[in-house]
From TrEMBL:
PROSITE patterns: PROKAR_LIPOPROTEIN. Residues 1-22 form the signal peptide. SUPFAM superfamilies: Periplasmic binding protein-like II (SSF53850). Keywords: Signal. PANTHER family: ABC-TYPE DIPEPTIDE_OLIGOPEPTIDE TRANSPORT SYSTEM, PERIPLASMIC COMPONENT (PTHR30290:SF82), PERIPLASMIC BINDING COMPONENT OF ABC TRANSPORTER (PTHR30290). This is ABC transporter substrate-binding protein. Residues 87-445 form the Solute-binding protein family domain.
Length: 553
């Protein structure tokens, strides 16, 4: 099995030197940076009323606006698209042991915190101790401690991190000399002089309407072309789209219906949009504990009538790619599709679907599908109201299923709570949802077949259909904890066989990272021909983009 060496390397990854990183930035003088234009980064989340700059807290202002990513940096940056490569960042080099339970880190030299204090190995150890506090450990680190030997840090974990390397490498690194005085790092708002990071920008002003950050003139990776960042939160996607189109906002991550008319055509020379495929997919999850989805034959038939091309072309307006492989994997993971499944794809084939159903004892009455018990087949497909792309997908799937096999699909568009509660508690019929994105095939298969996502109380974090097959569970555990590619190859072969035969879920299209931006003042953005990062400003790779931007001619 071919895997991306950048994600599984058993030898140290050579870091980019400071001079090389500086060479990717503007390279201009302080006067040039000071005279440059600010960038306004937009979110559609409405007013954010309370200042909290804690990067470990998901609903803090820093996390919601996204500016935590330019203040607090990470050991490395994992590219979720393109080559899925890893770029050491605050680490000079990184090396995993054979079973991925230990990570050896050499901290980058010459890095200072924004208050002038030096960045050290002790900051790394303290940050992982903080991130592993139960109230903050949303990544399930199972961190067991560290050993510091000079400038080398060895971080130890309670289980293999092979499938969760990005979660380890993207832990925010915080200053020990500031954070060790906090009574409770899980709740401290980290304000005023306590807001200290290694990142390229530092807080200048905070309000409920917008946040301003200034470029540091002592940033370790060199001069920055963009002197100032404004983070603004608009009331909804419509207001955000208007701001992007008229130039009030420069950069955002949003799904914009009719993006050509609504954004790109407003300034065809400068307005840009990049959809970057990831290893995750928008996926039809079915409740496998109730009719009609408790029958694998019905699930197989569905997989042969749902038009993934229509999902991409109509619902996503081209901002995705269809997933047709019977393994459920998109093209970004084609190197993990086993030889026997290479080129084995679904297509829209109603005759094939009807043959499967007829063999399983289904019949038709006046074109309506009747199950073997004599009951008309019907189910409800639920997506939150306002999720326009997936709301359109609901209608498309309903039409495909009705026309293809004669089953009725009822459309449900509740609010978030009315969608999430049945999802978590297993009382839904069918939903569209995203996947856990591990950077490997494991993300799809754990999301759809792994019983570990079901809590003792019966709530689901993923595997919403509650699929449970001992062979799949064993293969998932082997893949996650194996110490050799041979073991993983055997495990992935088992998983792909089970997935293709039992169809526990139906991926529709790759779930991309989206980015809207303009080139009026700066160039050097990611593109389809230079996929060094996605253009999504909410991702850790934003610091990589900001070091590459330079003034437009």
């Amino acid at each position: 099995m071919k895997l991306r060496t950048s994600l599984i390397a058993a030898t140290a990854i050579t870091a980019l030197g400071v001079s090389a990183l500086a060479g990717c930035s503007s390279g201009g003088s302080d006067d040039t940076a000071a005279g440059g234009a600010a960038l306004t980064i937009a979110k559609p989340d409405g007013a954010i009323t309370t200042e909290s700059n804690n990067p470990f807290v998901g609903d803090s202002a820093a996390s919601k606006y996204g500016y935590a990513k330019v203040v607090f940096e990470t050991l490395a940056l994992v590219n979720q698209t393109g080559d899925r490569g890893t770029t050491p960042w605050l680490a000079e080099s990184l090396e995993w042991n054979d079973d991925y339970t230990q990570l050896t880190v050499v901290p980058r030299e010459g890095v200072t915190w924004s208050d002038g204090e030096p960045f050290t190995a002790d900051d790394i150890v303290f940050s992982f101790e903080t991130a592993s506090i139960p109230a903050l450990d949303t990544a399930g680190l199972k961190y067991e401690g560290a050993e510091v030997d000079g400038d080398t840090v060895v971080l130890s974990f309670g289980d293999s991190k092979y499938v969760n390397q990005a979660r380890v490498l993207h832990v925010p690194i915080v200053p020990k000399h500031i954070w060790e005085k906090f009574d409770d790092p899980a709740t401290d708002p980290v304000k005023g002089d306590d807001l200290v990071g290694t990142g390229p920008y530092a807080m200048a002003n905070w309000s409920t309407e917008s946040v301003t950050l200034d470029a540091r003139d002592d940033y370790w990776a060199g001069d920055l072309a963009v002197p100032e960042l404004h983070y603004v939160s608009y009331g909804d996607n419509t207001a955000l789209t208007t701001a992007l189109a008229n130039g009030d906002a420069d950069w955002a991550q949003a799904f914009i219906p009719q993006i050509e008319e609504q954004f790109l055509s407003a300034d065809p020379e400068h307005n840009q949009f990049l959809a970057s495929p990831t290893t995750g997919s928008a996926t039809l999850f079915m409740n496998l504990q109730q009719k009609p989805f408790d029958d694998p034959a019905f699930r197989q038939a569905l997989a042969w009538v749902i038009d993934r091309d229509a999902y991409v072309d109509i619902a996503r307006e081209g901002a995705s790619e269809p997933v047709w492989s019977v393994t459920g994997l998109s093209s970004i993971l084609e190197d993990e599709i086993q030889p026997e499944f290479q080129g084995v794809d679904y297509k829209v084939d109603a005759d094939k679907a009807r043959d499967l159903l007829e063999t399983a004892g289904y019949t038709w009455k006046d074109d309506a599908l009747i199950d073997p018990d004599g009951t008309p087949v019907s189910f409800t497909l639920s997506v939150p109201s306002g999720w326009s792309d997936w709301n359109t997908a609901q209608e498309l799937i309903a039409e495909d299923v009705k026309d293809g096999i004669g089953a009725e699909v009822k459309i449900d568009m509740p609010d978030w709570g009315g969608w999430a509660d049945p999802r978590d508690n297993g009382t839904f019929s069918a939903i569209i949802h995203w996947l856990e994105d591990s950077g490997t095939a494991y993300g799809l298969y754990t999301s759809t077949m792994d019983p570990r996502w079901i809590s003792p109380e019966g709530k689901a974090g993923f595997n919403f259909g509650r699929f449970d097959d001992p062979a799949a569970t064993t293969a998932l555990n082997t893949y996650a904890n194996a110490s050799s590619d041979e073991e993983r190859t055997a495990a992935i072969d088992t998983l792909q066989t089970i997935f293709s035969e039992q169809v526990p879920a139906i991926p529709l299209g790759a779930h991309p990272l989206l980015g809207e931006f303009n080139t009026r003042n700066y160039v050097g953005w990611p593109s389809e021909t230079d996929t060094y990062a996605s253009a999504d400003p909410t991702q850790p790779n934003i610091v990589q983009i900001l070091t590459k931007l330079k003034p437009a001619e």
